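User: We ran a pulldown and think these components assemble together. Before we commit to crystallization trials, I'd like a predicted model of the whole complex to look at. Sequences follow.
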Amino acid sequence: MRWKLVGFIVGVLVICIGFGMLIPVCFSLYYHDNSIEALIESMLVSVLLGILMMLFGKAQWSGPSMSHREGMAATTLGWVAAAVFGGLPFYLSGVLTTPEDCIFEAISGFTTTGASVIRDVEVVPKGILFWRSLTHWFGGMGIIVLGLAILPFLGVGGMQLYKAEVPGPTPDKLKPRIKDTAMILWKVYVLFTVVEVILLMLGGMDLFDSLCHTFGTMATGGFSTKNASIAYYNSVYIDFIITLFMILGGINFALHFQLFRGNPRAMWEDGEWRFFVLIVLAATGAIAWSEYGHKYASVGDSFRYASFQVASIITTTGYATADFELWTAAAQCILLLCMLIGGCVGSTGGSVKCMRIMVLLKHSYGELIRLIHPRAVTRVRIGPQAIPIEVLGGIWGFFILYLTLMTISVLLVASTRVDLVTALTSVMACIGNVGPGLGSVGPVDNYAHMTPFSKWILSLDMLLGRLEIYTVLVLFVPRFYRK
Amino acid sequence: MKVIIVGGGEVGFYFAEWLASERKEVIVIDKSEQALRRIMEHLDVQTLLGSGSNPRILEEAGIREADIILAVTDSDEVNLVACFFANMLSPDVHKVALIRNDDYGAYRDRMSEKMVDISLVINPEAEVVNSIRRIMSAPDVEQIHDFVEGRIKMVGKRLPAESPLSGIRLTELPGIVKRQRLIIAAIVREDRLIIPKGRDFLQAGDFVYFVCQRDDLGRTLGFFGSESNAVRKLMIVGGGKIGRRLALELDRMKGFQVKLIEMDPDRCQRLAAELRRSIVLQGFATDQAFMEQENMGSMDLVAAVTWDEEMNILSCLLAKRLGARKTVARVNKFAYIPLVHAIGVDHIVSPRRCAIDSIMPALRRGKVINTFFIKGKEAEVLEAVALEQSSIVGTPLRDIKFPKEALVLCLARGDEVLIPGGGTVIQPQDRVIILSTRGNIARVEQSLMGKRRML
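Assistant: Here's a predicted model for the assembly, 938 residues in total across the polymer chains.
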């Protein structure tokens, strides 16, 4: 482990975050709000400390390229540093007053969760609001690189297959080719962002709002500039555009790239994509059926709200056009299931992810076959490819760890005397990077009322969920530090 | 007529024997003294010790005076190089190279362009798989062969006593089979080959060879007292090249239940990754408890296609004992073939046999594309493309001077299948299927050939 090298990388990241604050400064100037000082101070602190970290690590930069251990350490520490420095503007502007609130809000942004502790976002200075949404967008970019550079080493699924489709990293070291791939995927990401901003502006949003909501959509984050989230606009057009782009954000970006290269068959033939689309359609249909005649009088309305909410929850975005706390228990259960499933591998969506759910289901079915034919050799296949045995083990391990950490967190949050639904869904929403849950953290509520202890737990859950658990947990294994 | 055969293995031996029996001058080149000794002991041919890919050896064998060189060693490379040098030393000689590797198939056209005048007979595992597929289409039939891309089937089948056909005259046949078009080509009765005429009888116990269209096969077999229940449940023993290919082909089609038995765990993993619907089982197909558990006895067909022919035979015997309907074993050594039939294995596939079948047309004069032997080599059925200059084209059949014991069984013109009568006129590009006894083959070829000079 070369800690100095890790320090260097984190330093570069912190400097980037610092310069990123220049964009909200522009909006702050334009709207003449009182957040400009806080933003500039945060920027200076970030850039200066970042430079210090870089200088500290410079000696080792010229050495051999990064090992995957160092990559994992840099990723986790990078996200933590992003949360700390990204939280500064909230603190310095006085929008949030306690450290845990600032960290919670920033980590929720960078992990593209979208859970908020701000009670009334409409009074927050525009510059700070813009920064809050921008953290989503940066987080989304980070996830794309994460998927390419770190996750393949963990062997927890999906990315190995994805590697075969786009020129990816060689298994041992982080190679410059990752940069090429990341650039391609970033271009897709930026292109979608631009298109969505234009489409939202055509729907009547101003530039500021459409940018903020686009960041929240493409990164599958969920921060809004309105207390009522997307419901504020009450426009079928805006609902439709955001539903569409949430779904796009929840699909493997490599498939989008293939689509642009004139290869739409790649998408159609992708097993995970089909599974994802199938679940979205099935869940939408089921909820619409359940809510028709209950909450909504017309078929059109039930489908409009059901499709938006299913897309929002399964892609782990967390926008709301309806208060689904008023829906039937069946509809809420379906949403909770969607929360657990999540988006596709290689997307900005979080949670367990469709690929893993598919693999686990298929593997379990294979075990059933083996009861009938004890000598049968079965392999789990996704599309044309068979999943290697080691990856299968990794995926089971991931799933069990995911459930274990979820259970422990629910226990800890429940110990702060909130009700069971709140405890369960707040943890599910945070570890799955969704945002809103049910109970007192529902779509029209926020996390401000939680105790500081819960906020720390939930912040950690967001980080664990976003970095696919192993990346963070491996730092707690003593062997990791041995030479 | 002088023929050089490179390679004295089973395939080389077969051709040497056959060509020698047609009184051709044959020289066999092989690197193994033992193989040559076996040939010299049994056949009236010359032998030469050495490598067929060596130009000096080829010259020594008299490549300049030879009419044909047939490269049939087990090595594709040796076969290619032998033909390459033969081409260099004596461009006029007719060269045939046997290629076993499937991968060459994709390059066949480009290779033919570069290596002018070398006939490449590419005979991959696909041929063996095709013959298993043929068996699957009619598992109760003893012999079956495809003509005209499978549109016409030649079937050899024993006539049971309860069949409505037994005891009738051939002239009565159309009255019984009605609209089904069925042509009786040959009958083997008490080990005697009969090319039947209208006044001949069909008797119970006859081994009857007939030709019919693919779509009529099921109903036609009904007249032979056999239900055409095609294979649905199949067990493949051995996941090697043949087994894998067969399983993959069936995997893509609906309606088959396939179990594939393979003993190597790693190979099982690879196969399981490739196959969607078929079940891959790891173990030995000679393990009775395992096979009972997997219901080997309820299979329609058990195809044992491992490398190990003894294992294949044993697996088939176990399958028969457990009650499987039909079995097919892959057997390499020709010497085993009569034995295997005797102990109750229903069908045999042999990669070498398939290689011989695919080389045979390349040796025939005229544009022969397919041949099938009846009763050893006593009679032969040829499928040929009628050439413009050939003497059978353009005149009504009754006026063609054709040997007495040879007959045109059927014609395929475009999508149509015709049963020729005396007035039928063969047109160029027709596919003609002709039956001939061995003695008349040369004259049949003569009439097919036109001006092309070959064998």
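Chain A has 21 helices and three strands. That may be worth checking against your pulldown data before setting up trials.

User: Thanks, that helps.
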